[in-house]
From TrEMBL:
Protein name: ABM domain-containing protein
Lineage, highest ranks first: Bacteria, Bacillati, Actinomycetota, Actinomycetes, Kitasatosporales
Organism annotation: Streptomyces mooreae
Length: 94
């Protein structure tokens, strides 16, 4: 499995951002090949983190492209800063 983690800082409205992610982005992720799980986390203080888990590296990398497009089209006014993106192979899980 592979994961993609995106950290967004300076989030303008965490509640509205979460609503748009839940209603618009989560369905896109569920349709992606190799999808395992997706989490959108409110870390407080204007920080939100997404974690996408896929069966393979290609799925994780595809999720990064989908996220960038979704943010540009639907969340640009709420997420003013580009995310810090980390990807990697899942080496332990529970």
């Amino acid at each position: 499995m592979y994961a993609a983690i995106r950290r967004y800082e300076g989030v303008i409205d965490p509640i509205e951002t979460a609503r748009r992610v839940s209603e618009g982005f989560v369905p896109l992720m569920r349709q992606a090949p190799g999808f395992v799980a997706y989490y959108w986390i409110d870390a407080g203080n204007g920080v939100m983190i997404s974690t996408s888990v896929f069966q393979d590296q290609a799925g994780a990398e595809q999720s990064i492209a989908k996220a960038a497009g979704f943010v540009q089209d639907n969340l640009a006014s709420l997420l003013p800063n580009p995310p810090q993106v980390t990807t990697g192979k899942v080496v332990a899980s529970a």
